[in-house]
Design a protein that fits this description.
Blueprint (H helix, E strand, L loop, with lengths): L1 E6 L3 E9 L5 E8 L1 H11 L4 E8 L2 H12 L2 E9 L6 E6 L5 E6 L15 H5 L1 E7 L8 H14 L3 E5 L10 H14 L2 E5 H8 L4 H10 L4 E5 L5 E5 L2 E5 L12 H13 L4 H5 L3 H17 L13 H7 L7
Parallel strand pairs: 1-4, 1-8, 2-6, 4-5, 8-9, 9-10, 10-11
Antiparallel strand pairs: 2-3, 6-7, 11-12, 12-13
Helix pairs in contact: 1-8, 6-7, 8-10, 10-11
Length: 322
């Protein structure tokens, strides 16, 4: 049994780490891909996880497979392609650590995952199934992602979805919105940024946008607000959980750390138990997740920056009294 299985992109993030003597940017090779980042934190916190996706039979793909294994993530659902190369992404950071991306993904291995490549036996064993929209941005991975999520839902898994909108990966904004809405419709838990919430609902007010999605059937909505924390809505209520002020160096993977910390906390729960939590207990979980997301910004890279349980508890307002 796996606490969480995730399907999606696994790629290389080339992260800037300074300038060379010739004053040129130096990039460091780091493992990347939001679903894998989520699993890496969940595994680091002690739960059983499994990844489903595809990388190339190249030095990058083999490096990523080794990273997953070293992170105690099950790789029986990871396909190694001899035909397609591992996807590469270059991260560009501004003065506050906020990032943009350049993708080298034309026929990248992650987007060439087909429905027949998916290991459905792994999904059967998962309490929670997580996916995002990057794997839905092109075929055949789009169909593979949707079928896998529907299969997981039919088999009783809790479904977690992160739109993780990357404009450069879509042929149009309209296509992105329509496709992301498919994921939202399947989801029990939705982690969404303020900008993504507006994209999906057309609402600037996060409370109004979250209420729209709640009424459409999403049971838990988590709207991440960067350093300002998170707005949440579920059956027990809604509210804001404050963020943490840290020395942010690189925000890559911060949202994944947030979501990984949240899914870790609910990995032994049923959906009815989660929805039945009182508001104070629910907000403690969001606070723990905020602390994890904040700490992930204090180092470069995504997986290398993921915090330990002790570090999260030490930063959390509740100091481990959960």
């Amino acid at each position: 049994m796996f606490h969480i299985a995730a399907l999606g992109e696994l790629l290389i993030d080339f992260t800037p780490i300074g300038l060379s003597k010739a004053n040129n940017q130096i990039f460091e090779q780091n493992p990347g891909g939001a679903p894998a980042n989520v699993l890496a934190l969940v595994s680091k916190l002690g739960k059983r996880t499994a990844f489903l996706g595809m990388v190339g039979q190249d030095q990058f793909g083999l490096f990523l497979k080794e990273v997953l294994e070293n992170s105690n993530i099950n790789v029986s659902g990871l396909k190694i392609s001899e035909e397609f190369k591992t996807t590469l992404a270059f991260v560009h950071l501004d003065s506050s650590g906020d990032r943009t991306f350049s993708f080298y993904r034309k026929l990248g291995a992650d987007m060439m995952l087909s429905a027949s490549d998916v290991n459905y036996e792994v999904i059967k064993e998962a309490r929670i199934f997580h996916f995002g929209s990057v794997s839905m941005s092109d075929e055949p991975a789009r169909t593979a992602s949707i079928r896998a999520a529907m299969f997981a839902k039919e088999n009783g898994s809790i479904i977690s979805f992160d739109p993780n909108y990357r404009p450069l990966l879509w042929s149009s904004v309209k296509e992105a919105i329509n496709t992301i809405k498919i994921g939202v419709k399947i989801a029990d838990i939705l982690k969404v940024s303020e900008e993504e919430l507006e994209l999906i609902t057309g609402q600037i007010d996060v409370a109004v946008g979250a209420d729209m999605l709640f009424r459409e059937g999403v049971k838990v909505i988590l709207v991440t607000l960067g350093k300002h924390g998170c707005f949440y809505k579920y059956a027990g209520g809604e509210g804001y959980a404050d963020g943490y002020s840290v020395n942010a160096i690189d925000t890559t993977g911060a949202g994944d750390a947030f979501l990984g910390a949240f899914l870790y906390q609910i990995s032994e729960m049923k959906m009815d138990e989660l929805c039945g939590l009182n508001k104070d207990d629910f907000e403690k979980m969001v606070d723990f997740s905020n602390a994890a997301g904040a700490l992930a910004t204090t180092k470069t890279g995504a997986v290398p920056a993921l915090p330990s349980s002790d570090a999260i508890h030490n930063l959390s307002n509740f100091k481990g009294k959960m």
